[in-house]
Amino acid sequence: MYKIEDLIQRQPDAANAIGAPGRNWMTYGDLKGLTSRVRKFLRTADIGAQDRVAIVLPNGPEMAAAFVTVAQSATTAPLNPAYKEDEFAFYLEDLKAKAIIIEAGYDGPARAAADRFDMTVIELTATQPAGNFTLSTNVAGNAPDTVPSADDIALILHTSGTTSRPKIVPLLQSNVAASARNVAESLALTAGDVCLNVMPLFHIHGLIAAVSGSLAAGGSVNCAPGFDALKFYGWLQEVDPTWYTAVPTMHQAILARAPRNADIIEKARLRFLRSSSSSLPGPVMTQLASTFGAPVVEAYGMTEAAHQMCCNPIEPGRQKPGFVGLPAGPEVRIAHEIEDRLIDGVGEIAISGPNVTPGYEANPEANEKNFFDDGGKRWFRTGDQGKFDEDGFLSLTGRLKEIINRGGEKISPLEVDDVLSDHPAVGQCVTFAVPHEKLGEDVAAAVVLKEDQNATDREIRDFASERLAAFKVPRKILILDEIPKGATGKLQRIGLAEKLGLV
């Protein structure tokens, strides 16, 4: 079994590894040297191979390098810098973090939360080149200089917690390394590939697909300071990437500004575009591919799988709009939604493989509910409903807890999304359930119109009525300037009715 260290150490020292717009590249030699210095520092700060280190840093090359280097010596726990003090306190306590890494001079809520627990505070000072840094702390110690094994935890993240208390997902060294290699293989990444990362690096998508997948292939990743649709095309021109990965809302924002950046698009050398974390509407995939003259590869991932589970083929013309692709790493099957067994047809998507977490931490109830054995293998229930077509491509028919039950009629919000997004005036949309006195639930949708486009809620509803059975058509359509999103930029159906004041 591979470890994160194995991905890095085999790469040539002179090759570019981590960069950022406007800064010089960190080479693999630089990264290896930084890894050694970080390990020495952590041990003298009394942090051992199994200790947990929270990382609260802005998006950028230092965050990427901190994750990669610390994860080779201890357990990393990246946290969203936008959290409030009480949120930081919850996660730090829940994680049992021994230390926290913050920017030098930072005096925000993360430090305040760490001070509640008298936690070791490590300050990071960025240097040159991109991604390079020094660490400092006032804590001294002498932890054993052991190297994590493949079975040690490299990365800890929490589930989103949209319906319950967040669950702790431990990902082993072997899970992270396996998933990174799966991404690199499915995308046919080489040492010549350059990724432009716009994804947040406290999230599994950016950490594994953009950063770890690139490094596993000996390629390079250029880390922007987060997603900014207004700056994207400038970065595209400067960085000259061969690919980028994003969530659908980001792709849609990029598309909206494509007409005024035609010259940059024409000169871009994008080999492909990748989309993951939520379903990409078919019309958006088609428009992206046409605009950039490159295939759009939709993938399917989740935290418990160390990100990637399925991926559309990389070869031009083999992508299927509306499908999340072929199994790309773990074994992917369909499970009975109630009974612990595998089935054919429509059901709950289940996965098994070396990239899958061994189980939620300190949560036997969740493990009992989400894992089962069949055919001599341990399977994880994803919570997604889906089916395979005759070519082995997987389609998501909905999130089991997001499926709208309208008086017994089960409606996939993804299906409605696809139809609404095909309306010429619709830029973004998300379909969700609203309470109904008689039916239990009814269908609603939030819509953002494209720039310089007009449409009424009635016109959009009539458009949907022509393409959907009557019971699937949203009874309420809200036209908004912006749809509320989660911290990672994903549209969140669960709780949206409440956020929009419909409950």
The oligomeric status of these chains comes to: single chain
What is the C-alpha radius of gyration, as a whole number of Å?
A: 22 Å
Low-confidence stretches: none
What structural class do you assign from the helix and strand content?
alpha/beta
Instruction: Report the total helices.
Output: 15
Silhouette: globular
The end-to-end distance, rounded to whole angstroms, is 50 Å
**Share in helix:** 25-40%
Mind summarizing the main beta sheet?
Answer: 9 strands, mixed
Instruction: Give the CATH superfamily of the largest domain.
Output: ANL, N-terminal domain
E-strand count: 27
At the first level of CATH, the class of the largest domain is Alpha Beta
Strand content: 25-35%
Domain module tally: 3
Name the CATH architecture of the largest domain: 3-Layer(aba) Sandwich
**Mean of residue pLDDT?**
94
Strand order of the largest sheet: 2-1-11-10-12-13-14-15-16
From the 3D structure, determine the CATH topology of the largest domain. Answer: Rossmann fold
